[in-house]
């Protein structure tokens, strides 16, 4: 690539879109919502594998060139910024590959308490009561209990991302990984962004946390979930009570493993 690349990953509804919107104020940086690159990366890996009858003609050096070329061909000519952030929850499952392809790249994983993630998604569903959501395959039935189960199972929007995060956090490839807590991003934005810039080795930029903008209403409407990537102009926390039943909310009280120093033997940076 003609530019540096980093990755944003982690849990849904945990600040990745907000982080991208803030970073994009810096003309040196390009960041946006989840891109199709991770999906194309996964498909290409499969096509370059032994299931391809012509794989005898493909070696690892060629695979690496093709996969690096995917990023270059997607971003070069389309993005003028010198530094690109690509976003996908799947990147937490690709740390060894990313470290091999882009040794200087960093992965920023956004994290948040699972209960509040589920609460946030449930609020979206209830606020769009006449629009079935792609999150639940546009199904119109169910209860908060069935929706929660669908979200947190291994293939669900939250469960997959949570398992991917644990895979990355407890792996041997954590030197390029940082966890950014949602509460830090919204309550202490200056410190959060200073940590991000230090982590990626870029000079600090004076961001405007009072006037943040991001608009992907077309994507959200097509997904049947208006507001999915909505970012408020002013960065800050909003105090509220949960709309989840107490037993559902308490179910996830032990999920934030990153808060236990004893579970961080490799010293992953947590902000």
Automatic annotation (TrEMBL):
Pfam families: Sulfotransfer_3
Organism domain of life: Bacteria
Matches recorded under InterPro entries: P-loop_NTPase
Name of the protein in question: Sulfotransferase
Organism: Dyella caseinilytica
């Amino acid at each position: 690539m003609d530019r540096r690349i980093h990755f944003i990953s982690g849990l849904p509804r945990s600040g990745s879109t907000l982080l991208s919107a803030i970073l994009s104020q810096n003309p040196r940086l390009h960041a946006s919502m989840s891109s199709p690159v991770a999906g194309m990366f996964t498909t290409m890996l499969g096509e370059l594998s032994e299931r391809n009858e012509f794989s005898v003609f493909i070696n690892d050096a060629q695979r690496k060139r093709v996969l690096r070329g995917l990023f270059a061909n997607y971003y070069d000519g389309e993005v003028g910024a010198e530094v690109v952030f690509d976003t996908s929850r799947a990147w937490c499952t690709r740390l060894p590959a990313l470290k091999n392809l882009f040794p200087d790249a960093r992965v920023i994983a956004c994290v948040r308490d699972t209960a509040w993630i589920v609460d946030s998604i449930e609020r979206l569903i209830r606020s769009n009561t006449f629009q079935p959501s792609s999150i639940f395959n546009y199904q119109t039935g169910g209860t908060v209990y069935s929706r929660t189960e669908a979200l947190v199972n291994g293939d669900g929007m939250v469960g997959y991302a949570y398992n991917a995060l644990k895979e990355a956090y407890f792996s041997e490839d954590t030197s390029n990984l940082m966890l950014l807590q949602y509460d830090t991003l919204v309550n202490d934005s200056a410190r959060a962004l200073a940590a991000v810039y230090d982590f990626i080795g870029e000079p600090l930029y004076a961001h405007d946390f009072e006037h943040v903008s991001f608009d992907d209403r077309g994507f959200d409407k097509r997904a049947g979930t208006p507001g999915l990537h909505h970012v408020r102009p002013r960065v800050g926390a909003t105090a509220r009570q949960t709309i989840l039943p107490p037993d559902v909310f308490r179910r996830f009280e032990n999920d934030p493993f990153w808060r236990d120093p004893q579970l961080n033997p490799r010293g992953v940076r947590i902000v």
